[in-house]
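A.,

Following up on our hallway conversation. Structure tokens first:
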């Protein structure tokens, strides 16, 4: 292959990879019915910082790590973080944005995706 052709090839490859990785960050579309309300609420309230698919965004942690699986971080701790913010207060309380039942749906969704990811 000529140098120019190679360059074009690798540029298109890079664009393709970028496009694919951007796609993988779209909210999952195959979430079973019982978790759909949780997903919608999670995306509305938490997704902007923690990522629509729980992978974090740099500043806010991913939930798909051992630290946040249920043995190390209980449902009650998640509930508490949503209501009162994180211990360091870097994450502000989200209490005004969600009802009690929405909090439960969000927790169900987080546990579901953790399980799907093979964490628990
Ligand atoms: C404005 C951004 C933002 C939003 C919105 C947000 N978080 Fe956070 N969250 C953070 C940051 C940043 C941290 C890390 C804070 C820290 O280390 O103290 C965090 C930490 C956490 C933690 C871990 C706390 C700990 O003690 O380790 C949990 C659990 C959590 N968030 C759940 C949620 C849930 C559930 C929602 C939606 C209801 C949500 N967050 C919405 C930014 C956000």
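Then the amino acids I'd put at each of the 120 positions:
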């Amino acid at each position: 292959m000529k140098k120019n052709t190679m360059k074009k090839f690798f540029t298109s490859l890079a664009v393709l990879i970028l496009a694919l990785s951007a796609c993988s960050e779209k909210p999952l579309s195959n979430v079973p019915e019982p978790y759909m309300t949780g997903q919608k609420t999670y995306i509305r309230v938490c997704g902007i910082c923690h990522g629509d698919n729980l992978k974090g965004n740099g500043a806010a942690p991913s939930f798909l790590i051992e630290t946040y699986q249920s043995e190390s971080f209980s449902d009650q701790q998640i509930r508490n973080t949503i209501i009162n913010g994180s211990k360091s207060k870097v994450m502000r309380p989200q209490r005004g944005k969600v009802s009690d039942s929405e909090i439960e749906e969000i927790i169900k969704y987080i546990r579901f995706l953790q399980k799907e990811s093979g964490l628990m």
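The first helix runs from residue 3 to 24. Curious whether your intuition agrees with the design.

B.
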